[in-house]
Inverse folding.
């Protein structure tokens, strides 16, 4: 571990070494820079502190000129030698250094001999055979580089939460089986339940009897584990590897932290960065020091830890209520924690039913009985069946006659069920002009109505907004499904005037959905918060189409929680009687 400043410094020295290697400098000098980079990355404390008390200069491998560069960075934020090196090469050359399997020597060769300056150029050199013809390359190496480019391109995007969960589950299960392991916890954006994940961060502690070598062995084993596609680095405190789960390639960072620092490290590596920056300012104002090792009291030259093993204690010792990871975005949570006004966030256990479920009658895979069984197993009080309407032809939407039969089946099954109430609903299409795909007298037979836009999503702002507002005017429409229509990684949201939609939802007594499917998470966290502030109820629905579907509820709950939702903000936290009254309030008497 090291402070963020140490990591930046380490990166600068590493990059200087790379650039010097491309330039063809003395290998001995290059190695000195690499070594300084490694030392900086693994310093036990902030480089500035170690420089101030003279201990940095005493570390073997850090000479006078390195100290001068570190000093320059600490006072100016840059190293002039680094900037001079950078100026000698096209910026795109740095991306080539990221290609697994190429390395600085390879970059030097392709730059000088083939005039390749970027990834596109490298791809061309592979395609036309000129790379394989280069001395020191050959078919095997070129194949590895081609694979490296593919990895780089596949892993450059962010991944969905369910994908990140799958990878994290794989790695944490493996870690828990290793000898000496004590604690394993995800950190970073995954622990904050962000809508997409850049890389997966995992922290572990080892039993107090473990040594430095045990940590190194664990990390070395991790990058060799069979689920790893490409090891990136393995040191004594941190290892990184690329893991392929069939879709995108995901980077996983595993850090071994001391038991006494587990809480501080968890706090630090959970982030967000902005939240951490604010927290550190608070510490400084109180005359304390906060880093990934502990919260310290400072007495002149001496300091001693007042919190470290337990994350909650970091907050309480700063005079704050502990803050749920899902709120740590510097969106007012620190102020609320100081005033004691943090919300009691919605929990999965408070959900009383699922209001958005498809069956084999339209495009689902399960029948009514199977869904009812699963809902009972989840402890739900009610389950609302919402198949598609006739205009959704691809989804085998129901016309009025088929819907009537489906309602009949639902009523009959419901009369046999104990403990669960099966509600008859629909996910009715909002047509191009904002009218609905069923007549009001068809809708009147249903217990709950979701209205959704499934076509014309790329229409102009006025049009998509008008359609949504008009649908809400219908007295039978209780909820707008996946209001913005986005599909993460696949399709942008509609150009919807979300403020107008929220205002109209409040005025028309209509809920907005938090679609729990990890492809959607729609509404998203910030929109959830806007809706709550406007007094609009949120309906968390799974939009379940298969066996896994109902279990996706947690993703919707976490998204709503990131929007500061409490039990009272969520429609499907109501009891069945409350829900029926809430629906009746909008309908004509
Ligand atoms: P991601 O991976 O892009 O989805 O987002 P994060 O939040 O997981 O970011 P990541 O993996 O770069 O770093 C994990 C956490 O470590 C981050 O949330 C906060 C902490 N951290 C990383 N870099 C810095 C930094 O430069 N300053 C501060 N204060 N914290 C940092
Ligand atoms: Ca991360
Ligand atoms: Ca990371
Ligand atoms: Zn839909």
């Amino acid at each position: 571990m090291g402070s963020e400043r140490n990591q930046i410094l380490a990166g600068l020295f590493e990059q200087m070494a790379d650039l010097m290697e491309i330039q063809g400098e003395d290998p001995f000098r290059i190695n000195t820079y690499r070594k300084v980079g490694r030392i900086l990355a693994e310093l036990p404390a902030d480089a500035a502190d170690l420089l101030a008390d003279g201990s940095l200069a005493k570390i073997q491998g850090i000479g006078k000129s390195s100290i001068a560069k570190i000093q320059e960075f600490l006072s100016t934020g840059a190293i002039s030698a680094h900037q001079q090196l950078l100026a000698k090469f096209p910026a795109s050359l740095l991306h080539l250094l990221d290609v697994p399997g190429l390395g600085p020597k390879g970059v030097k060769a392709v730059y000088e001999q083939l005039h390749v300056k970027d990834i596109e150029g490298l791809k061309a050199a592979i395609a036309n055979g000129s790379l394989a013809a280069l001395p020191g390359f050959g078919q095997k190496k070129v194949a590895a580089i081609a694979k490296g480019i593919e990895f780089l391109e596949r892993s450059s995007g962010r991944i969905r939460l369910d994908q990140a969960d799958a990878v994290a589950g794989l790695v944490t299960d493996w870690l828990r089986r290793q000898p000496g392991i004590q604690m394993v916890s995800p950190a970073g954006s995954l622990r904050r339940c962000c809508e997409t994940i850049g890389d997966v961060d995992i922290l572990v502690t080892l039993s107090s009897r473990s040594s430095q070598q045990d940590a190194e062995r664990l990390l070395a084993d991790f990058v060799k584990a069979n689920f790893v596609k490409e090891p990136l680095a393995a040191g004594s405190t941190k290892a990184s590897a690329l893991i392929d789960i069939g879709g995108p390639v995901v980077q996983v960072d595993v850090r071994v932290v001391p038991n006494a620092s587990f809480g501080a490290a968890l706090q630090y590596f959970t982030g967000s960065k902005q939240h951490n920056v604010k927290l550190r300012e608070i510490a400084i104002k109180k005359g304390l020091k906060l880093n990934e090792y502990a919260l310290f009291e400072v007495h002149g030259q001496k300091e001693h830890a007042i919190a470290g093993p337990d994350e909650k204690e970091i907050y309480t010792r700063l005079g704050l209520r502990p803050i749920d990871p899902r709120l740590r975005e510097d969106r007012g949570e620190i102020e609320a924690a100081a005033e004691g006004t943090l919300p009691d966030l919605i929990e999965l256990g408070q959900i009383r039913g699922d209001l958005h479920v498809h069956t084999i009658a339209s495009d689902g895979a399960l029948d009514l009985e199977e869904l009812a069984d699963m809902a009972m197993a989840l402890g739900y009080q009610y389950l609302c069946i919402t198949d598609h309407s006739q205009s959704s032809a691809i989804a085998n939407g129901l016309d009025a006659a088929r819907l009537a039969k489906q309602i009949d089946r639902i009523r009959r099954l419901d009369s046999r069920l104990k403990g669960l109430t099966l509600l008859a609903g629909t996910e009715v299409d909002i047509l191009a002009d904002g009218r609905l795909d069923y007549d009001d007298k068809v809708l009147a037979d249903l217990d709950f109505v979701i209205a959704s836009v499934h076509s014309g999503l790329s229409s102009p702002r006025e049009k998509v907004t008008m359609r949504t507002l008009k649908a809400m005017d219908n007295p039978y429409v209780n909820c707008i499904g996946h209001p913005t229509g986005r599909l993460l990684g696949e399709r942008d949201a509609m150009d919807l005037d979300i403020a107008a939609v929220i205002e109209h939802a409040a005025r028309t007594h209509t809920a907005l959905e938090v679609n729990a499917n990890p492809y959607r998470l729609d509404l998203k966290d910030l929109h959830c918060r806007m809706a709550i502030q406007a007094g609009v109820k949120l309906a968390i629905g799974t939009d379940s189409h298969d066996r896994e579907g109902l279990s996706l509820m947690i993703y919707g709950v976490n998204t709503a929680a990131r929007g500061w939702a409490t039990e009272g903000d969520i429609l499907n936290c109501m009891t069945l009687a409350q829900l029926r009254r809430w629906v009746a309030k909008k309908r004509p008497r």
In short: Residues 188, 199, 201, 253 surround calcium ion (ligand 3) (CB under 6 Å).
